[in-house]
Request: fold
Amino acid sequence: MPLFLASIFAFIAAGILSALPRKRPRAAGLAGAGGAVLGSLLGIASAVKTLASGAGETLHLSWTIPYAAVSFQLEPLSSFFLLLVFAVGLVTAIYGQGYLRHHHPGGAAHTWLFFNIMVASIAVVFAAGNAILFLMAWEIMALSSFFLVILEGEKESTRRAGLIYLVVTQAGTALLLVFFILLGNHAGSFDFSRLASAASLPMPLANALFILALVGFGSKAGFVPLHVWLPEAHPAAPSHVSALMSGIMIKTGIYGLFRALTFLGPPPSWWGWALIAVGFVTSCWAILFASAQRDLKRLLAYSSVENIGIIALALGVALFGESAGLPVLTMLGATAALFHVLNHAAYKTLLFLGAGGVSIAAGTLDLDRLGGLLKKAPWLGAGFLVGALAICGLPPLNGLASEFLLYLGALRAGISQHGFVQQAPLGLAIGSLAICGGLAIASFSKAFGIVFLGTCRGNGSEHWHAPGLAIQAPVVVLGFVCVALGLLAPFVASGIASIVQTHGPFKGALAAFDPAPSLRPLFWLAGANAGALIAIALAVWLRRALLRGRNPGRAPTWDCGYSSPTPRMQYSSSSLVQPIAWLFGAFLRPREKDPQVVGYFPHHAEHATETPDFFLERVFSRVFTSVDGVLSRLRRFQHGRLQAYVFYILVTLVALLLWHLEVVR
Amino acid sequence: MTGAAGMTQLVFALFCAPFLLGVANRAKALFAGRAGPPLCQAYFDIWRLFHKSVVYSTTTTWLFRAGPVVSLAATFVALCLAPCGGAKAVFSFDGDFIVMVYLLGLSRAFIVLAALDTGSSFEGMGASRELQFSLLAEVGLLLCLFALAWKTGMLDASSICGQLTVEAWRQEAGVLSLLAAALLLVLLAESSRIPFDDPNTHLELTMIHEVMVLDHSGPELGMILYGASLKMWILGTFLVRLVFPLRTGNFAADLALFGGAMVLLAVGIGIIESTMARLRLLNVPKLLLGAAALPCLAFLLSAGG
Reply:
């Protein structure tokens, strides 16, 4: 606990320190980043200590705010998430120092204040043991990340992104407020320990609370259709902030769902159904839109939504197992969910940091102006490739491990069950994973292939350069983390399984369940990963042996007899996925501007396609416009005259007083 | 004993995989009234390519050289997980077929990336088509294997194939034939045969798999050819084990029976190629969607029943 408190203190102190010296931005930036590194190391030490001992620590101090308490609980589930936030915080702080120096030379030292507060508030969200403290940290997290998103607020698109983010996150918080008030009202306290041990909730209330939690936490996690802020906010934010948001901040929604489920008692089977359905829609919808994007960070943002969908699937499968009395399904589902949280934190942080490296190296993230970057920045490219393969769930990397657990759980339970109602959700989970796998390969072949391979499609590639060590090193290190997690999957999974067993929301069925046999296939998976690495090494040796003593020739790419191909003739990001976009056109609804060809020797023709977000464009925009139309009549009350506002307050108070007198009488 | 049997059938697969191409080509030649190339032509091709040097495009990077290498390695590991014979696979564990499908995905991803590395519009076109087709074919394959697992109640590929007996056909002929049809479609699509792709086409615009490997040469092209034949062997394994459930119990006899069935499968592919035209490219996804829908139908039938 002292380590944790020291870590939070280090973050906040360094953040404030970095905001003080206006005249020396370089020193301020170093102070901010240095404090973040120190705080992260302290936090990692604290989390590792808790995870190693398995024992929880609590701190409870009363507070003057009603119902609130300064209450922290460092138990294994919290510490698992804390380890992730501090590890991602460490990498992004080191990276951010180099990134900001390049993108905002001298002008962005104050962002460290928000960055440090954001990391600290996420940590407090994970460690909070009181609902009021949790909500406060939740709000601070939302606001500090909002200020980071609008760092480049002089751009119209950035301000719009910030506004969308703010609206979604505030709406989500409003629901969470209702959730905790209802829950606290029932339990008579806002402390998590009391909420968890309170008398069982009546079923209608539990159902209502589940829906509130699903929507409230889902807006932060990014369940479709509440995902609309992600593809806007991630491209707008600086890359290290996108990495932090996508790698860990959206997981606070998942953590919140886990916590909420510990309060809600035994789940009825429709909760599992609901989460599986949400996961199916979220993962398939998002990866489909990811494949159609032409901005690298938008693509990554949609892919984050997809991964959140996979986590929701896993959680839904676990809930389904709990309600159907299948401990093996609960175990594998919940372990897969947490393992996927870990995996996604590793490779999505990598990919966003890699995208930042691309923007530093080439000055753009527009896929159709990129190409051939691998020659200029080989290490960045190699790291990005590892991340891209890992996120597609391809061996020998870590992404497959968590999906494999989910597949296995659904398969094992599906075999033991009989009847459509028992089997269908498991089949749905398997089907959506299979569909996502193929679409992810398409999306990330595009992301890596168009950016790093071929030749540059735009102008100015002669000015491209490899980004510095502070940018490339974190990407490469995270690549090794992905390989290591793939090889150590069984050990990681058994650690997570023990957390699930002792501190997850599924205590009932799992207490007497031995997870070891059901996790055993992971040893084989790790063996297959190692085998793939060995086979690759052997094939490299074979190639070398076959080519020994021969001189490779060099020639231009085969151009089918055409004499002067240009880089513009390469397949672009849109044309590469055109067959897929055509196949799923009913969902994607791309907007096309077809060329108008006039005359026998047409001069100028344009063709453009874009794929706007369906829910943002066609649902939320319309709803909000009509709401705006109704509410704009109220605007006459808001005119900026202070005395009138005081009058409103007076009228309200008098009205309340009268009402109170009436009620009391 | 089982380990030795698994190794034997692995070595058998490694040696015999390219033979299938020769059989399919001979069947096509006979249909067309030609003598056709020798049955062992694929071996000659690979041997010849392995003794040549390479030419690299000036556009390419290390990824282009990594493409064939990783692709072959991944396919080889996938082959180790497939029960290609009467005995258990070399490595067999719960959910091994999932890993196998994803290894084939890794192999394909590297071929696609190597194609994009050349910067050629033709290879980009091939990559683009391959991404669409393989997306559907992979879903079809995974769902088929899951449906088989579901049906047989087994979790690893070897036991699943062990449960596919004459008795199983007698009880579940409807479901199993749906799955066999889907597996055949996946096999044809993934090994670039008619009606999905034409291995004999010589026009870049009409190629799919071939156009992606236009710039590969020498041993690396040989690796791709060999890898493709291994992949056909893997996919053929599941179809053959499903459709020819006869087994004697003797390992050598079973392996011979299995090899004979694979040859029959290759003849069947040759017959399909001789009697059918290639589909229009726009119609290919529809057929592949069918391949993904059939296992869903099988699932519904078996869950309802």
Observations:
- The mean pLDDT of chain A is 91.
- Residues 186 and 201 of chain A are 8 Å apart (CA to CA).
